[in-house]
Design goal:
Shape: globular
CATH topology of the largest domain: Gyrase A, domain 2
CATH class of the largest domain: Alpha Beta
Structural class: alpha+beta
CATH architecture of the largest domain: 2-Layer Sandwich
Helix content: 10-25%
Order of helices and strands: HEEHEEHEEEHEEHEEEHEHHEEEEEE
Number of strands: 19
Length: about 375
């Protein structure tokens, strides 16, 4: 039987449900296109409680997290967060995560839904070996994401805290509609937005998560808020050029070929996979993840061959039609010599060639869309 999140009853009443990563989740409510455009232009709300959440705290939380992740945990101050990776000893990516330093010796780790058991088991083993306190809180808390140019205005009505003072990849503990929450200025859409961890909301007693969700829907009504499902979330993250674990990255992929080398800090003390990652960086990537923007009509899909002239040079790992741009986009891995911006390539769709160009994500113009937009 599929697992459920704290907001399952709402999804059953309003959404089109599918099974994803072992959970029964909404793939859409009103439709993938209107939900995607709502996030790009106004505001959307997602239930992301299927993702994993854990707390690492005193006595050796920083030492533990610095050893199991690639980024430099010691650089985080309380109220800051960063994107990081878990790697295996061979430098392959076990998962990509967001790490939040809530207090000096208290961290929250957010990881992918499909890796919940794998990550918890592995991290628990590493924590026991080091002597750190690591606890899975996935079933004791809910996670709600509010994304889009009107995200802050939507949430601000429910809290006394001034959210304009929270920087990108910052976090703050506050109350939303009287409920204790951790609010971080992060997300998976490319837009300015926030992820709200509702602390005391279990699967069996989800009332606090339901209260926050419903309050956000009411608060965002004047901005045209849309509840959004997994379908629009996947389109939005691809438009932003963000990786989906198990599709664009996995344990056979290293951070440098995935263009995630910015998360690897080789100057910090020893960490899992460091020796292999030093070798990968020194050798240089033979293949690279690239964005491909179609220049002729067609919808690229994962698994489609990428060709240079008539020779296959790679495959798409993700592909879709972008509602924001009204054209086909995709990501995949190709030899490094073809991975320069402007390189003309082709994507084969059922025997027909779709012309495409290598671009640097995000795919949308950043002056019009995304957290860097000029408004």
């Amino acid at each position: 039987m599929p697992l459920r999140t704290q907001l399952h009853d709402y999804h059953m009443d309003h959404g089109k449900m599918i099974e994803f990563a072992g959970f029964e989740m909404p793939t859409w409510y009103r439709g993938i296109v209107p939900e995607t455009l709502a996030v790009r232009n106004q505001v959307g709300i997602f239930d992301v409680s299927h993702m994993g959440r854990a707390i690492a705290q005193w006595p050796k939380s920083e030492t533990f997290l610095n050893y199991v992740t690639t980024n430099d945990v010691s650089s985080l101050k309380p109220g800051q967060a960063h994107y990081s990776l878990l790697c295996n000893e061979n430098g392959g990516i076990k998962d990509d995560i967001v790490l939040l330093r809530v207090e000096h010796d208290r961290f929250v780790v957010v990881f992918n839904a499909g890796n919940r058991k794998k990550d918890v088991d592995w991290l628990t083993t590493q924590a026991l070996r080091i002597g750190a306190d690591f606890r899975n809180i996935s079933d004791e808390s809910a996670l709600i994401s509010v994304q889009g140019p009107k995200a802050r205005a939507t949430i601000q009505k429910l809290t006394k805290a001034d959210l304009s003072l929270v920087p990108r990849f910052g976090c703050i503990q506050t109350e939303l509609d009287g409920i204790n929450c951790l609010v971080s200025r992060t997300g998976y859409t490319g837009e300015d937005g926030y992820e709200i961890l509702v602390w005391d909301s279990s699967i069996t007693n989800p009332q606090t998560a339901e209260k926050v969700w419903n309050a956000l829907l009411v608060s965002g009504r004047e901005y045209g808020i849309e509840p959004c499902g997994l379908g629009s979330r996947d389109v939005l993250r691809l438009e932003a050029g963000m990786c989906l674990y198990g599709t664009d990255i996995d344990e056979t992929t290293n951070p440098y070929e995935a263009r995630l080398g910015f998360t690897v800090k080789l100057t910090k003390p020893d960490f899992i996979g460091r020796k292999a990652l030093e070798s990968f960086k020194a050798e240089g990537a033979r293949r690279l993840r690239v964005g491909l923007k179609a220049t002729t009509r067609g919808i690229p899909r994962a698994g489609c061959e990428i060709v240079k002239d008539t020779s296959a040079v790679g495959k798409l790992t993700s592909g879709t039609h972008s509602p924001t741009l009204d054209l086909g986009i995709g990501m995949g891995y190709i030899p490094a010599e073809y991975a320069t911006e402007g390189q003309a390539l082709g994507i084969m769709i059922r025997g027909k060639r779709l012309d495409a160009t290598v671009v640097k994500p995000p795919f949308y113009p950043t002056d019009k869309y995304g957290w860097q937009r000029k408004t």
